[in-house]
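Pipeline run #58 for the internal structure catalog. This entry was flagged by the ingest filter as a single-chain record with no existing model, so it goes straight to prediction. Upstream metadata was stripped on purpose; only the residue string is passed forward. Reviewer on rotation: M.T. Logging verbosity set to normal.
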Amino acid sequence: MSQSHDNEVLIIQGGRVIDPATGIDGVRTVVVRDGRVAEVAERLEAPRDARVIDARGRWVTPGFVDLHVHLREPGHEYKETVETGSRAAAAGGFTAVCAMPNTVPANDNASVTELILARAAAAGLARVYPLGCITRGRKGEELAEYGELKAAGCVAVTDDGSPVASAALMRRALEYAQAFGLPVAVHEEDLLLVGKGVMNEGPPATRLGLTGNPAQAEEVMVVRDLALAELTGGRLHFCHLSAAGSVRAVREAKRRGLPVTAEVSPHHLTLSDEDVAASDYDTDLKMNPPLRSAADVRAVQEGLADGTIDAIATDHAPHAVEDKKVEFDAAANGIIGLETAFPVVAELCRRGILSERRLVEALTAGACRCFGIPGGTLAVGAVADVAVLDPNAEWAVDPEKLCSRARNTPWKGRRLRGRATHTVLGGRLVHEWSAR
């Protein structure tokens, strides 16, 4: 990692600037001064005292924004900390991450929010936006104090990892959050339908002898909460959509003007239950929601391409080795994803499924709009959060060399194409990578 001095002029020269928020897509030079974007010019002589990044052949984009990251602090620092998670974010081109509240204790009060923000400030590697709990202790019984959470710095509320089973409580959450301008981000699964399911219900699960979790367990909750959003006018955000029926329901809700947003993870965009079947029970392919069918994968790809799904979010979920080195049924759900997100999703551009502009939008301005987070643009005067990306850099995923404290990646040993070579946070260079 390399850090530049706050006051120096930074010139990012000759890269393809892709900034959907301003409509720029072309070779430009970006000038950063006093921590802000000072100029985006077609031709420019670099001042002698400037630090220059040669971005020829690379993309220059707003720093990526991840709506869904588990930093594990407080309570599970052996899996990840705010500092190690922020370092992984910077290595992946992310300058801002939203921290999920399923910590120990859960982030249902100002003191936990303030601790996370203090740790993030000390690390200085990424902007961390905490999410508070929908319910106290994420138990689904009584609402948390949204006003206190908002005042402390939370940008949304969620019980991620746990659905809000009670429709009446969910209605109250949408109404209460609306009073504070907070989106309600929902993890959608009907636990009675899920039962003991550990992977997507379908032929691959049958072949493996594993209990299935049907896509309808997600879809019925999505439909329920869309109805409640219509009733209350509350802002609803769907975490990690995975099923075709969910995408159809959100598309229709948006057509009708409901205040609804949605995210999808890189793994749900690129992997299916057939990958689980081919993996010899690899627990790094166990997650919640589970990897769905090939038809579901196509549906979420189409939903992202047409704007039904607003953002790509990693659902970065670090676990210790002992949480994963067990039988598939017993293994913890989730994978790390911050450092592999760009190359994994960039493959969709090479296959013609997603435009490069849409990819960048879903990782920047599209994500910011969901929770009203600042950033996501290289407009003159904007805070200089910037990613420099080499879309053609090939590298092998060695879990031991990743910045995350955890190693649970399904792409271990795979060669990926695409890498964040530089990440700039508020004008400071916080990450630099070169092929060695």
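catalog note: Residues 1-6 have pLDDT under 50 and may be disordered.
catalog note: The first strand starts at residue 10 and ends at 19.
status: ready for reviewer M.T.
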